[in-house]
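Page 47, continued from p. 46.
Same chain as before, 357 aa.
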Amino acid sequence: MEKPTDRPDRPERPNRPARPVAGRRFYDGANRPVIPKQFRPDRGGSEFDDRPARPRGRGGSDNRDEAAGNRTGRSDRGEARPPYRERNIDPSNSRPRYESRPAADRSIDMLFGLRPILEALSAGRTLEKIFLLRGTKNSLVTDISTAARAAGIPVQMVPGEKLDSLTRKNHQGAVAFVSPIDYAPLDEIVSSLFEEGKVPFLLLLDRITDVRNFGAIARTAECLGVQAIVVPGRGAAQINGDALKTSAGALNLLPVCRESNLHETVRFLQQSGVTVVACTEKAEQEIGVVNNDFTGPVAVLMGSEEDGISPELLRLADVKLKVPMAGQIQSLNVSVAAGIMLFEVARQRHLTSPHGA
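Result:
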């Protein structure tokens, strides 16, 4: 039976390839989608093909004159093309070649390799943290762990994936971060303050992990007259370029003490005559409501962003206060709460000082 056609004056050509339509796909023998060459954009094909066109002048163009013009630095109109640096090209729009690789952190110095880290420890360089490959057993690893414990530098045993995410270099199972600041011993600071006739005003940070919160707290502390910040050896925010930037340079002026055990630090301060004041939402007394005297030696204790001050440290505190709040959220950022608590201490000291009101 003869098939009817819309144009009987034009006979059908059975060998003619099917015309593609939107949403139609072609497949090869392995059931993979295939786009015929005559329908590709770089071949003048169909608009339904979403494959990117081949760049002109790169060997795939059918226009030989245009390709030759691109190679000689001239456009198809015969005009000289500007140099690459003067063209309107935004390099930030280009996709990175290796998206899965970690970006290099330029804010701090990094050491990798067992021997360089051991030499840095021997030279007395201040290291922020050391990561060692878990399960590695050799003399260099033992020497690094021993020297780091003697210097109070935290050492963490991690899997190889952690080290690979920190650097692309051949780390040999060891990566260390060089601290941009030098840590100060707390006992020397306290003794020097008493010898100089100054009243100690210290700040203890229990597991503050966010570097920007830490930088903001350091900035406020320096402005309100805090003489030193005490952080734990483990679980504290890494002092890097972000922390320095957020502190507006305060970390370069304010001494930072890294203590391995905050419980012993609190006991040491109490034995030295320093009152430890904990700022926590679990307290019953509010700041400014109860007449607490903060004109003497004071150390303000602030807790982590997640669960606040640890219960062990909270039991050791001499005074427990909370920030009065009237809103429904009943929660403050730790840097804001620290600013309120430090301001109360600074306000009382300013009123009692000779230059006060």
